[in-house]
């Protein structure tokens, strides 16, 4: 059936004596939404940092599209098609929305200085293409009307959506979303829910999700991994995870 | 009130100490001896008037600020025509300024044109440093090193190999860029204060090297007799060197030493316009956006696949090459260079131009360069207190316009639908 996109084996991250992530395995297939859940401080974001190259994992392998990427520089990993967002919105807030989208396409543009100085046709064509792609994705997240607004002046929910659009415009195959619903109201969460499903079904990309909003996670995930204190606790379909006694214990404490 | 009194006494005390040291006493050499001479009575009167002014202005500052609050502030924004009109007028305005720049030297005095040339050198330096500090947000305190590299490139190539100004101009820019690249590569992982210290050190290294490589650079004696630029092989001297024709003979006009000054000025104008065009394009190009993005959020940039080393390095290299241009021209104009011309104060002045003008703002930088080079000329009699005035200007600016004369308004890309 679907192909294996990301395969993580024995991922371990140590900070001095502290083991933040211990022997985590996970895999993401094509067109799949996979979630990582766990209590606060469980090491979920550390896993993201290891996958996206912000940390170099102490141990374990990260194979993306059949290629070992553990230890590669962050920007190289993102160029391979594995792009992430952050727990806190990280937009270029003094730039306009459309410029945020253009910066994300930096490597798709003609960055040859001479071509830009002389405005060659090739340069202009690539810039127009980038503009079109930006406009397309702004439309997908319902933000086209704000294209020329400064990103910092947008409402919080819009900033969240812009962040996802900004990732999508880099044409990734796997999107890592770190708590995308944090701080959103129920209506915005629902929009986000639809957007993520749409990304999988229409745009055929995979999503790896860290989220605390259980209704969102249970509703859209194809597979869920549970991490507690850096160690894998359980995994399975939403139904399996929901009924797993270990998971209930980790979340609610023992009776 | 009581608090104001303390503040007033304190401020007056500081003024007293500072003015006494700087104006009140002077060292003069009497034969081989140094003697301390007090200020004249008139000077003391001025000093005490100044102290009294500071004292009372601090004492009654509340009353003063309420009194001045009533005075309407000039609203500069309202003076500007609205956006559409401005966009229509802009090309005409630019054309008028450019034409003006080319015409006025023929009507102005020789001294004025010479001063304008110097100003243009600082404009060039300011614009170059503006790329590094204003656009890319990298604090560079050793910018003058690249200026020195440019100047010495021309001086040495001209002295040893007899290469002409026009050949050396690109070589100087390239060499300065190379130095920028070499310095930038190891240090650009540093940030903020650390980067500033390393670049400061680099600036000093270059100057001290030039000072000590006596065999090659002439050391502190510098290099003199550097050739002036030629116009397609025409020289601007009364008698041309062998194989060259003087400009005035070729044109069949009388020799006028002013021609040379005007010619140098025109070269400077062309160089500045070229630099302006390039930077203007850069700001609208992907790399310009990447600089700003990197300044705003480095982590987000990395996650989007931007290679920060390459992007920072491009800013550093481009800034350095602009300084190389300026340096090459400086050597040609001056005809004599020594390491004295490339001390840290120069870096500080160029940085001050960028900060005063408003980081990242080109027009602001040009304005600040004009202020910083022309004001000292007008205030000739204050020569000794130049640095004092300089400091005062800085304090006042930071107090009332910390964003600079004309803060940057980057051209934003717009989505047209």
Automatic annotation (TrEMBL), chain A:
Pfam families: ABC_tran, BCA_ABC_TP_C. GO terms for biological process: D-alanine transmembrane transport; L-alanine transport; L-isoleucine import across plasma membrane; L-valine import across plasma membrane. This is ABC transporter ATP-binding protein. GO terms for cellular component: plasma membrane. Residues 6-254 form the ABC transporter domain. PROSITE patterns: ABC_TRANSPORTER_1, ABC_TRANSPORTER_2. Belongs to the ABC transporter superfamily. InterPro entries: AAA+_ATPase, ABC_AA/LPS_Transport, ABC_transporter-like_ATP-bd, ABC_transporter-like_CS, BCA_ABC_TP_C, P-loop_NTPase. Transmembrane segments: none annotated. Keywords: Amino-acid transport, ATP-binding, Nucleotide-binding, Transport. It comes from Marinobacterium nitratireducens.
UniProtKB/TrEMBL annotation, chain B:
It is found in: Cell inner membrane. The keyword Phosphoprotein does not apply. One of its GO terms (molecular function) is branched-chain amino acid transmembrane transporter activity. This is High-affinity branched-chain amino acid ABC transporter permease LivM. NCBIfam families: PRK11301.1. Keywords: Cell membrane, Membrane, Transmembrane, Transmembrane helix. The keyword Transcription regulation does not apply. Residues 3-104 form the High-affinity branched-chain amino acid transport system permease LivHM N-terminal domain. It is a multi-pass membrane protein. It comes from the Bacteria. GO terms for cellular component: plasma membrane. Its main location: membrane. It comes from Marinobacterium nitratireducens. The chain crosses the membrane at residues 5-24, 44-60, 89-107, 119-139, 144-163, 169-187, 194-210, 261-279, 310-332, 344-373.
């Amino acid at each position: 059936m679907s192909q294996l996109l990301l395969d993580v084996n024995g991922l371990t991250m140590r900070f001095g004596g502290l083991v933040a992530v211990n022997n985590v395995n996970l895999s993401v297939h094509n067109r799949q939404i996979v979630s990582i859940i766990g209590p606060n401080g469980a090491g979920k974001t550390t896993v993201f940092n290891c996958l996206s190259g912000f940390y170099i994992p102490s141990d374990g392998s990260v194979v993306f599209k059949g290629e070992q990427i553990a230890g590669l520089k962050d920007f190289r990993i993102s160029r391979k098609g594995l792009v992430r967002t952050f727990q806190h919105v990280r937009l270029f807030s003094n730039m306009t929305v459309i410029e945020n989208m253009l910066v994300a396409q930096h490597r798709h543009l003609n960055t040859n200085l001479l071509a830009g100085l002389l405005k060659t046709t090739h340069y202009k064509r690539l810039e127009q293409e980038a503009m079109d792609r930006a406009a397309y994705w702004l439309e997908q997240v319902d933000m086209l009307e704000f294209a020329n607004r400064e990103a910092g002046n947008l409402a919080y929910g819009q900033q969240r959506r812009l962040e996802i659009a900004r990732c999508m415009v880099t044409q990734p195959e796997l999107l890592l979303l770190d708590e995308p619903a944090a701080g959103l109201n129920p209506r915005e969460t629902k929009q986000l829910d639809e957007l993520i499903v749409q990304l999988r079904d229409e745009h055929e990309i995979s999503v790896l999700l860290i989220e605390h909003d259980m209704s969102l996670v249970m509703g859209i995930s194809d597979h869920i991994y549970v991490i507690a204190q850096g160690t894998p606790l359980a995994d399975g379909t939403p139904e399996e995870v929901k009924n797993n006694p270990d998971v209930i214990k980790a979340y609610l404490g023992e009776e | 009130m009581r608090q104001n009194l303390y503040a007033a006494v304190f401020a007056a005390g500081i003024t007293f100490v500072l003015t006494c040291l700087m104006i009140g006493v002077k060292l003069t050499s009497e034969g081989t001896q140094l003697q301390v001479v007090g200020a004249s009575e008139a000077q003391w009167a001025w000093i005490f008037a100044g102290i009294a002014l500071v004292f009372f202005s601090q004492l009654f500052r509340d009353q003063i600020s309420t009194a001045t609050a009533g005075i309407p502030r000039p609203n500069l924004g309202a003076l500007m025509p609205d956006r559409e009109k401005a966009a229509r007028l802009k090309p005409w305005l630019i054309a008028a300024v450019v034409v003006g720049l080319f015409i006025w030297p023929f009507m102005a005095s020789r001294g004025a044109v010479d001063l304008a040339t110097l100003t243009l050198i600082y404009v060039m330096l300011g614009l170059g440093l503006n790329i590094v500090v204003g656009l890319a947000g990298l604090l560079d305190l050793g910018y003058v090193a690249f200026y020195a590299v440019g100047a010495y490139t021309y001086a040495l190539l001209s002295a040893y190999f007899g290469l002409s100004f026009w050949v050396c101009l690109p070589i100087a820019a390239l060499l300065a860029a190379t130095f920028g690249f070499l310095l930038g590569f190891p240090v650009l992982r540093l940030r903020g204060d650390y980067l500033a210290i390393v670049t400061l050190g680099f600036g000093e290294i270059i100057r001290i090297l030039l000072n000590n490589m006596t065999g090659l650079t002439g050391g502190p004696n510098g290099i003199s007799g550097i050739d002036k630029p030629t116009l397609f092989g025409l020289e601007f001297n009364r008698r041309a060197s062998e194989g060259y024709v003087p400009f005035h003979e070729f044109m069949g006009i009388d020799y006028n030493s002013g021609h040379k000054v005007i010619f140098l000025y025109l070269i400077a104008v062309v160089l500045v316009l070229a630099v302006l065009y390039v930077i203007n394009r850069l700001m609208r190009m992907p790399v310009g956006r990447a600089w700003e993005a990197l300044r705003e959020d480095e982590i987000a940039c990395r996650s989007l696949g931007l290679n920060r080393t390459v992007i920072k390095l491009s800013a550093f290299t481009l800034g350095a090459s602009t300084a190389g241009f300026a340096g090459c021209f400086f050597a040609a104009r001056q005809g004599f260079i020594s390491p004295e011309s490339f001390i840290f104060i120069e870096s500080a002045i160029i940085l001050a131009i960028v900060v005063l003008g408003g980081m990242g703002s080109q027009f602001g930088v040009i304005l600040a360069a004009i202020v910083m080079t022309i004001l000292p000329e007008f205030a000739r009699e204050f020569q000794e207190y130049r640095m004092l005035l300089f400091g005062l200007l800085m304090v006042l600016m930071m107090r009332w316009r910390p964003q600079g004369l004309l803060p940057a308004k980057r051209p934003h890309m717009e989505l047209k639908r």
